[in-house]
């Protein structure tokens, strides 16, 4: 049955990814997995096309493969970065007090780990003792700012453009101005809010 | 079945984009999670019911397609929603970008404070979920916590040996 081909292709994807992530190559682990997953996904599609030619089993197999890859991507990013997962893995070594957990999962270490990962992914670069986002990093930032706007999340981190509101120079408002003129003036004032 | 499912996903997404994302309730993780979980359960029950009544191989393949595509849609949506709201690494990257634009140095201490808060909150979360329990002198994993931790360790080892060290 064509659906069963999902399992070996998925296992090969995970194996290829495990090799890629250990190879001395730059780039983020997510991109490596997407690369391996996409390539094997295309191969699966071609294989199924030549195996049977029916569209429904191929669609079902590709959908199941895509879901398996997506789930694995979610799980390994969670396993690599989640604070909760780190706590779980520390507790796996045995009972620990809160102070011991604090020491093992030092927050300075958490920030350093994140900075290190961002440096390795090419999203951050060092500038002496400081860090700055690379061009790719700025593109990622722009993408996530767009996502924040889409999902209506509060922009708690101000953008470079979000300077404090500066009052506009006073306008000569004629109280006898027409409603359309007053509306245009109000629009101009509100545009900076 | 696939066409109806496609229309359903478009409707679910359009409802969120046009109406629901304007509401404060949909800024909470729990609500957005339920917005995806409940329809996913509904789709699973419906598809399971169709299979029980008309158990053909064609319906089985359609059911697999529908469930897999529902999973892809919900996982993608929830990951992007979650990352854009509370991504720690993304926050650090954004802060570095803002600091650079303002000719200031990146201050890591604020993130250390945020990290300390996250740890305390997550430990309480593990206790609430029953993955960890209070022990004699501290905290330990429950049975389900040990199973989950074991699976996550395997995934972590496969995906990144550097972080697994």
Task: Kindly summarize this structure in a few lines.
The complex is a heterodimer of chains A (193) and B (165). Chain A has 193 residues and is mainly alpha-helical. In chain A, 65% of the residues lie in helices and 4% in strands.
Secondary-structure element order of chain A, N to C: HHHHHHEEHH
- Give the largest chain-chain interface (CB within 8 Å): A-B, 76 and 76 residues
> Main beta sheet of chain B: strand number and arrangement?
2 strands, antiparallel
Quaternary form: heterodimer
Rg of chain B, Å, rounded: 21 Å
Which features does this protein show?
heterodimer, A: 193 residues, mainly alpha, two-stranded antiparallel sheet, 2 strands, globular, B: 165 residues, 4% strand
SSE blueprint:
The complex is a heterodimer of chains A (193) and B (165).
Chain A: H1 6-22, H2 29-51, H3 55-81, H4 83-91, H5 98-104, H6 107-120, E1 124-127, E2 130-133, H7 135-150, H8 179-190
Antiparallel strand pairs in A: 1-2
Chain B: H1 2-18, H2 29-53, H3 57-86, H4 88-101, H5 109-128, E1 132-134, E2 139-141, H6 143-159, H7 161-164
Antiparallel strand pairs in B: 1-2
Helix pairs in contact in B: 2-3
Fold and architecture overview:
The complex is a heterodimer of chains A (193) and B (165). Chain A has 193 residues and is mostly helical. Helix content of chain A is 65%, strand content 4%. Chain A contains 8 helices and 2 strands. A two-stranded antiparallel sheet of chain A has the order 1-2. In chain A, α1 runs antiparallel to α2, α1 packs parallel to α3 (55-81) and α2 packs antiparallel against α3 (55-81). Chain A is globular and about 60 Å long. In chain A, 29% of the residues are buried. The model of chain A is unreliable at 162-178 and 189-193 (pLDDT under 50). By secondary structure, chain B is mainly alpha-helical. Helix content of chain B is 77%, strand content 4%. Chain B has helices spanning 2-18, 29-53, 57-86, 88-101, 109-128, 143-159, 161-164; strands spanning 132-134, 139-141. A two-stranded antiparallel sheet of chain B has the order 1-2. In chain B, β1 (132-134) and β2 form a beta hairpin. Chain B is extended, with a radius of gyration of 21 Å. At the A-B interface, α1, α3, α4, α5 and α6 of A face α3, α4, α5, β2 and α6 of B.
